[in-house]
Amino acid sequence: MASPTHLTGRIDVHHHIFPPSIGKAGLSAKVGWRTPPQNLPWTPELSLRAMDQLGVQIAVLSIPAGLPPGPAGEENRAAARQFNDYAAQICADHPGRFGFFACLPDMSDTQGALAEIRHGLDELGAWGIAMSSSYGDAADARYIGDDAFDPVWEELDRRSAVVFLHGAQVASSTPYPHPFLGIPVTEVPNETFKAAAHLVVTGKKRRWPRARIVLAHLGGSTPFLAPRVAGLAPHMGCALAPDEILADFRTFYFDTALGAHATTLAAMRAFADDGRVLFGTDFPGMAEWYTKNADAFYAGDGDRVALEQVMYKNAQALLGIKF
To answer: Is the distance from CB of 274 to CB of 253 less than 8 angstroms?
Structure first.
């Protein structure tokens, strides 16, 4: 796709890798999704081809949320280590084209998570940490604002780390309504919102202000439901006032992956400053239509300032990237 703005040098902060060991096609089928068959099996070369077509200079790689699978323990730790070493090798093999967000073992394994933060950031040079919205299964699941995860957040805050927060593929209590409306379509965006809201209403977002959190998919339903939280959470006992809650929601960053449309981007612009929005594709998912939408919206008034901010300058500033 040749961009109508002729923009080059995009930075894609939401770009997945699918190691052969995960069996991506099978995982997708379980949650009601079908990865474009031309993008499987995934290879770095597939990503590079798509990046060149979309005008992406650098893609920040991450493992899909929910991986490595639990339960917590040595096997889970080893899988996280293997994924991160694999991502680092891809970056080394293709200098100037990839960075990555390191994944963590199940965060209930505090020592394992802290060790992988050190390995990923200090030894492998990861650009941040990829985090799922929750850890554990069913009734045992805990969202990331849970007190049990405080030591991990304390370390991320100490480091002023970038955290890429992606909604988990958690099933609803009812079946998804139609084969066209599987869990990635209907549930994942709300899981992102729930995790963000959990951090806000527990006061954790303002407790660790130096951890810079990017919400996938424009924050899912966050721009639309944040006022609902602001009005109702204080009634339920939250110590923060409505204006404080909304202010804390606005301190997140938001990527455009699978969310870019004139309607949603206008809502995002009303909710948060353009300086908080980052370009993302969700490749190997569906990228081209959303990229065209983002180009059209941000270049619509002929002012390239916002377009350049969203497409690469915001990510450059957040991640410390130099072309």
So the answer is: no
